[in-house]
Amino acid sequence: MNANQTPESDRPGDDAPRPFLAPCRIVPATAPFRWLAAGWKDLRAAPRQSLSWGLVVFSLSLSIGTAAYALGSLVMLLTMMSGFVLIGPLLAIALYTISWRLDRGRAPSFRRSTAEIRRQLGNCAVYALVLMVVFLVWARAGSMVHVFFPVEAEPDWRKLITFLGIGSAVGSIFAVITFSASAFSLPMLTDRQTDTVTAVVTSINAVLRNKPAMLVWMAIIVFSVALGFATAFVGLIVLFPLLGHATWHSYKDVIDASDWPPSEPMGLP
């Protein structure tokens, strides 16, 4: 058992009053590299199950890219990829389940992780709704940024830099909001009997209290996704399960959710 985890006997009963959010621990800026190492260990412990989900993500990404190329539309590619942002976290639940079972010395399986995705559909629907609202506001804000686009046929580079700077700033704000809401919420929903609002608020609070570490973690995720795109999605076969397992360990390292009863993933023992 992890030294930071609360023993089962010390946990409150199902009817005990609980705080509005789960408290968090403060971790150093180097913590994400520890999470990656733990994630790599899980990937090596369950390579067949983990890489199977990597292949699922690769297949979905390749299908989206091929469809966008056939339609000859970059906008279509970006739109479909935005939709995939809502599906990706749902698939990552399978990897959290694999890590959950490895932590407890139980044998992971692709079938059990798929069953856990089905069990979490309700919570994920609420989570996806929250993200959808954020993306709709994001899209609206992005369209408003176009008022800063130079109208000249050959615009001055300073005006282009201003436009790109404003657009990047607006996009960064919404990216941080999305990242903060999702960093720890889905692992908590997998691990504990809690609701989506509590998990999202807990995640945002933990991110705000661990800014250096989360900035490093965000940079690692952005680099990994960029690397996956640069390798024509092939890199995602390994990178997606690695990041999924590492996200589970980031949750266990940062969040103290012992006030909520454990949630036993489906497919036990």
Walk me through this protein's architecture.
The protein is mainly α and 269 residues long. Helix content is 71%, strand content 0%. The protein has one domain (27-254). The protein contains 10 helices and no strands. The longest helix has 30 residues, at 74-103.
SSE topology sketch:
Blueprint (H helix, E strand, L loop, with lengths): L30 H15 L1 H25 L2 H30 L6 H10 L1 H25 L11 H26 L2 H7 L4 H14 L1 H20 L5 H19 L15
Alpha-beta content class:
mainly alpha
Portion in strands: under 5%
Radius of gyration: 20 Å
The number of strands is 0
Biggest beta sheet attributes: none
Order of helices and strands: HHHHHHHHHH
Number of distinct helices: 10
**Total count of domains:** 1
What brief labels describe this structure?
mainly alpha, 269 residues
Q: How do you describe this structure in short?
A:
This protein has helices at residues 31-45, 47-71, 74-103, 110-119, 121-145, 157-182, 185-191, 196-209, 211-230, 236-254. The protein has 269 residues and is mainly alpha-helical. The chain has one domain.
